[in-house]
Specification:
The protein has 15 helices and twelve strands. The chain is 44% helix and 18% strand. It has 414 residues and is an alpha+beta fold. Helix 1 runs antiparallel to helix 10, helix 4 runs antiparallel to helix 7 and helix 7 packs antiparallel against helix 9.
Length: 414
């Protein structure tokens, strides 16, 4: 089968499941509607409510036992589960808050949940030293990523050749593997099947995880696998597509960034660019490596706005791709990224009647094109707004809105 015919067959399957979701309410997801699908606090509360034996599900330790066995790979007797205690936002002696803690038998098990937030300095080390008892720290990310060096100072690294792939004191677990497997066990449990509210919310949460980790529904995936496996020509065509897919995504990222840059060059003739995390640096290195990393390489472009009343501190306008594209103001020290440089009062003195959202070197940002994250193209999770970029008319409209938003952002300055 030719590549064109193969793509047509796959598109037919995708369209079939799209219609099925429309007819059966598959797109009705309370996590997405409430815009909490990436909110680590809300996600932790949901997991906590399920694994807490005293949770509002009234299923006792059923879900906790499945969690401990499926996610943590541990086993205890029924007496231990009856005595188990689950806590969230557990405060340890140095003031840090651990997302989830399970106290069971002779163990205290800390669980840190990371979706998009960055590690804090010594975070995993402090959890291990001040919280864990007869247990590792469990580090839960979308795909089982490794904690940062900054978070794991004084812990024991595990090497693969010269690369750190983990730490002896930290167990890496993932939403796309262990958590999905646990939720599948929960939703298929004979009691859960009979309780529609619990069953449906768990299924919706599973849908969020699949979306965040680019996993297909099992039935849809099996149909696609069946077509790809039907002949040697089909699998050859599929492999050719796979080889070209990353380049296609990279080209779209370049196109978006270059087109916005061209528009701004026309509007900002008097503003100079600064080579801080520039998407063009080193032959587009940040763009070319973007899909090789679990996190973001943060490709973008920065414009010098003005020097501030602090020695060597400048105000910058920057647009950047993390997962989604956003624009805002940053501060730099001696033309370099240097973390937080302004206090809250100094930020307030720069902006007109807008609530600052300071984090690191950022003092304010908004998602492009309309400050709604769900409607911003997601270059990691490939939402509908991302697919629209491949329609030339929708692409041009998107760029128009981005230009308008960036000009509005500039007008926020006092």
């Amino acid at each position: 089968m030719s590549i064109e015919m193969l793509l047509s067959e796959i598109s037919h399957i995708s369209r079939k499941y799209e219609i099925l979701n429309q007819k059966t309410g598959g797109y009705f997801n309370i996590f997405n509607i409430a815009n909490i699908e990436s909110d680590e606090v809300c996600i932790c509360r949901f997991i906590y409510e399920l694994i807490n034996p005293k949770g509002s599900h009234y299923q006792g330790y059923t879900y906790l036992k499945m969690f401990v066995e499926e996610v943590l790979n541990m086993k205890f007797n029924d007496y231990d589960y009856k005595k188990a205690v689950v806590k969230r936002e557990y405060v340890i002696c140095n003031g840090r808050r651990v997302d989830l803690v399970i106290e069971i038998a002779d163990k205290v098990i800390p669980i840190e949940v990371k979706i998009y937030a960055k590690d804090q300095e010594n975070q995993c080390y402090d959890y291990y030293k001040y919280c864990a008892k007869n247990s590792n720290v469990f580090y839960l990310t979308l795909r089982g990523g490794c904690p940062s060096k900054e978070s794991t100072n004084n812990l024991t690294p595990i090497y693969d050749n010269s690369n750190i792939i983990g730490y002896k004191e930290v167990s890496q677990i993932s939403f796309d593997n262990e958590i999905l497997s646990w939720l599948s066990k929960c939703v298929s449990h004979h009691e859960t099947i009979k309780i529609a509210p619990i069953r449906e919310v768990i299924l919706q949460f599973m849908g969020v995880i699949r979306s965040k980790t680019n996993l297909l529904l099992e039935d849809k995936e099996n149909e696609i696998i069946s077509i790809l496996s039907a002949s040697s020509d089909n699998i050859k065509s599929a492999i050719d597509i796979e080889k070209s897919l990353k380049a296609c995504k990279v080209n779209m990222m370049k196109k978006v960034l270059e087109t916005i840059e061209a528009r701004l060059d026309n509007s900002f003739k008097d503003l100079s660019k600064i080579d801080i995390y520039s998407y063009k640096s080193n032959n587009y290195n940040l763009v070319n490596k973007y899909y090789d990393k679990k996190g973001s390489t943060c490709p973008g472009l920065s414009y010098f706005i003005k020097s501030l009343n602090k020695e060597d501190v400048d105000l910058i306008l920057r647009f950047e791709i993390n997962n989604s594209l956003f624009v805002g103001f940053c501060t730099s020290y001696k033309k370099e990224y240097n973390g937080k440089l302004l206090d809250q009062n100094e930020i307030n003195n720069l902006l007109c009647e807008h609530e600052p959202c300071a984090k690191g070197w950022w003092i304010y940002w908004e998602y492009l094109p309309n400050n709604k994250q769900a409607l911003a193209p997601n270059f990691k999770e490939f939402n509908e707004a991302y697919f629209d970029l491949f329609d030339e008319n929708k692409f041009n409209r998107f760029i128009d809105l981005c230009e308008e938003k960036i000009l509005n952002i500039l007008n926020m300055l006092k």
